[in-house]
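Researcher: Go.
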Amino acid sequence: MEQIYFHLPTKIFFGRNSLEGSLPILSSYGKKILIVTGRHSAQKSGLLQRIERILTQEGIAWQVFNDVPPEPDTSACEKGAKAAISFGADLILAAGGGSPLDVAKAIAVLAVNQGKTSDYFGEDAFTLSPLPVAAIPTTCGTGSEITKYAVIIDEKKRTKKTISSEKIIPAIAIVDPDLLKTLPPNLIAGSGMDALAHAIEGFLSKKSNSLTRIWSIESIKLVKSSLIQAIEKRDKSLETIMLASLFAGFVINHTGTIMVHGMGYPLTINYQLHHGTANALMLPYVLQFLKTHGYAEEIKTISAILSLEEIASLTKKSGLPSTLAEINVSKNDINRLAQEASIGCERSFKNMKEPFSIEELATIYLQAWEGKITSF
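Model: Structure:
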């Protein structure tokens, strides 16, 4: 019998209209809360005002830090930490997509540990325990509300780096599918496909086990059955796609991701492509490559649920780009992308059976540029 390690300290409140019923519990965790959001969406959707009203009713002091860009960088983390320290925050509340959630975790570390964000890239690189974090996801893909990762752009190295520690797993996750009703369809599509990438990459990770594979398979099934309907804002489908994202978060919290994410990073940084959209674009081409490079049996299992052609079709039906040419990548850019991906994949390769060369990464990018998909 295999040995399984499982740890998830998060109290999860899942369900429609769960925000008002669950948010008062934060009074047990802190009395001065720094609310971390994106620059516009939480304000425009009315979510921020709802949070502020509930916290005020509970007698909790709060302050807003809303200078989180769509792709979080070290600067945002350090600005947020200064705000937390100045306010005397004892709890960080993140509300938004993956960017505010990841920045909130970094703020929680920096608020009690001196230094820069880059000092804490890696596994358990800080000394003092961070402030507690609560998370309210407003997208259906990140899984960050229950994971030990904060993924941040390292501007100097032009790639994404990760702060990783079980100590930054949020204490509270309020997962309310109704919050997707104000999310633009293209972001439901991109984040939903991100959840699919998490589920599949976690299944292929060498850190997977029989428990995580159950969640992977269930998440894949849920995305397949609900993504298109969720984009059309059909109520029940919003619950299903949010649950798929949560399950995929369970998976990657224990398995990490593989090279799909590492190859998506250069597309996000160089072409400002949404994180989940970049993963959606690269997913079928990476799987096509891995089928003949040591993962035939695993991909056969996945394809019995969702084939490569169905993944590619789901991307197109979602209105997302399915080739590099569609996002204005020049064929001459492929070698540079491969070189940058080799850096982005350093962490991913640790979760794989073997690393791959820059030349092999370039081959995958070329297939993605040409749009070449062959059958499983």
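Model: The chain is about 50% helix and 15% strand.
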